[in-house]
Design goal:
About 20% of the residues have low confidence. The relative contact order is 0.15. This protein has about 120 residues and is mostly helical.
Length: about 120
């Protein structure tokens, strides 16, 4: 019986270790990642014209990275805060990007967007 109890403890520790590793791997999206993916979109947001292919690739990578509602809300806050720092940004243009790139968006960004209520 004591041998079984020791085996159970080892199995339990293995399961807990796996759970910790999984939660560590599923890190949230950082604002730095969002910025890196969407920086190629700034010129369209300010000047219009042609959307850079790298912009569409970045939007698609961001969409693929969403795992949770918190990821989406965090990305929304990052985009909203970043856009507010760009002189001459046109919010209507940046909200058109998803459609121009053929990918859905879980949020629209305006100065008044409440990212905590997204999704």
């Amino acid at each position: 019986m004591a041998k079984f109890a020791g085996t159970s403890k080892v199995a339990l520790m293995a399961v807990l270790s796996c759970m910790l590793m999984v939660s560590h791997v599923e890190a949230t999206i950082t604002c730095e990642q969002v910025t890196n993916w969407l920086t190629p979109c700034i010129s369209y947001g300010v000047f219009g014209g042609i959307v850079a292919p790298a912009c569409c690739e970045g939007i698609k990578e961001l969409n693929a990275a969403y795992q949770t509602k918190e990821d989406i809300r965090g990305a929304c806050s990052c985009v909203k805060d970043g856009a507010a720092r760009i002189p001459g940004i046109n919010y209507d243009r940046i909200n058109q990007l998803h459609g121009l790139c053929g990918t859905p968006s879980p949020f629209k960004v305006y100065p008044s967007t409440d990212c905590s209520k997204v999704v």
